[in-house]
Each structure stands twice: as C-alpha cells, then as structure tokens.
Amino acid sequence: MTRRRIIAGACAIALVLAVGAVYVVWRGASAGTAAAGPPLDLTAAGSVVYVSGDGLTRQTGSDATGPACQRTYAAAGTLSCLYGLGPAFSAELVVYDVRLAERLRLPIWGTPSRTRVSPSGNLVAWTVFREGDSYLAHGRFSTTAGIYNLRTGEHHGSLEDYTSFVDGVRVTAEDVNYWGITFAADDVTFYATMSTGGRTWLMRGDMAARTLTAMRENVECPSLSPDGTHIAYKRRTGERWRLHVLDLASGTDVALAETGHVDDQPAWLPGGEIGYAKPHEGRPAVFSVPADGSGEPRMLFAGSSPAAIGTA
Fold it and tell me: Which Pfam families match (predicted)?
C-alpha cells in the first residue's frame, strides 16, 4: 500500500466518523429507503432485480419496490445495496435478508461503482472509486474493492491487503488497483480485475490463503457464470470496451454481438443471456445479448445494475 493510500485511509476514518455523527440528520428518504408498494420477492426465480430511473430497486414481473440504491445485486435471499451519501467520496453498503430486514450497514469511503453477492448469499463485495470516476483514465483513478462475510463477520476491507502474483512473481508496484469482484460457489474462490502499469489482469482470488493469482491479461469487470465455467467480462481496445465471454477450461474467448462501448460489470441472466447497462436516449437502460456470441442486443427495460434471482 502506498504512503498516499495510508494517508487517505486515515482521512477515510475521520470522514466515516464525521458522516456517522451527522448521518441521521441529512440522509432523509433519498438513500437506502423504499417507496410504498409491495416488497421485493428475493425468491422469485427468473425475475430480475435492478435500479430504476428513480433510484429505487425494482423487480421485473411485479410492481415491487425496494431500497434506493446506485448499485444493487441479489443472490440466495441476500440483497446488496450500495449508494453514495451527501459528502463527496462517501458511501454506504446496506445488506438485506430475504424479508428485507437489514443485516449489515457498512460505511465506505468512495464513490459507488460495483457490488456483488456470492451464490450462497454469505459474501458481499463492493468496489468504490477513491479518486477519479473512470477505469479508462490510467493513472488518474484509485479504487477500493472489499468483501464482507455475513456468516462469520469477517471483513476483508481491501484486496490491497492480499498478496498478488503475475507469472509467479509477487506484485510490489505502488499503483495497483482492484475492482469488479465476482464469486464462485465455494465461498473461498473469487475473481476480480487488477491493474498496474497501464495493464489489467483477471485475478483468481483465494480468501483462505489471501492471495490473488493472474490468469489472463485484458479482462475487466468479470462475472462468473452460475455453473462456474465461463466468465463474462469487458475487453478494452483503445478507449472502448466490448463484452466477451471466456471459457475458463479451454481459454476460448468469444466477442459478444454487442459491438457498442459498454462500461458495466455484466450479469448472467436466464436463457444463456448476458445483461448489462448502457446509455439509451440519454438515460441508462438494461440490455441483453446471447452469451455464445450469436444474435443481437435487445433492450429489456430502463434502469441499471441488473441481477437475476436464482442466477449468481
């Protein structure tokens, strides 16, 4: 960890304390609260939970509403809600159970970017920007990615505390960033992106060993398939990203039919589809495209941050 980040961490502690002192005064109903209406059904297999244009978490196939979030995800009866607070670079992660009762409220210093829940519902992950707001801006952004174990209470506050390896060599560079965590079914293995020196890698993480091992270059925002065999991700070419799917066993890589620029962590949807958000007529919308590279993109609904119930 760099001296700059140590100093930033100390500032973060002070900021969290300050935020906690005044939080109840200014939070109001704009974040983490739900509008009147039927609650989300986190057992409705095949439905998709997402963030609508009004900032509320909603669900396909019903009029259900949930908490206000900027990023959300759901799996195994656990809902993760990540949103920014009033002061710049301050956020909060709130986790709900299947009855939408609060399980965890965690202050985080940064601007919301990504969140994920493990297939078991026991692990929740987040990524926030601590500097900047774009993964394209090499050298001009800084992120924090962390994991919380709801079953044990273990808090992995930053992947920077792990030991990372590329080609068997320990990474010691000071410009390392991590983002876009996705979980395997064993509650030990996960995948994430690491960047350093203007290059990015798909990293395979081991929570027990607290290590990260590089698997492949130029893989960002990975999303592991429900059967654990493929990873959907975005691949960078110049100043653009295109969605791809990687077969972990064979190494076969397929470019998806969405040829437009996509800055999102994709999500696996029912029917072999990949869901993602991109701008549409000036507002975010959720699209899907076949995971095998066939077909063409189709718009599903206005909103962002899709998560299919029953599909981690």
Answer: PD40
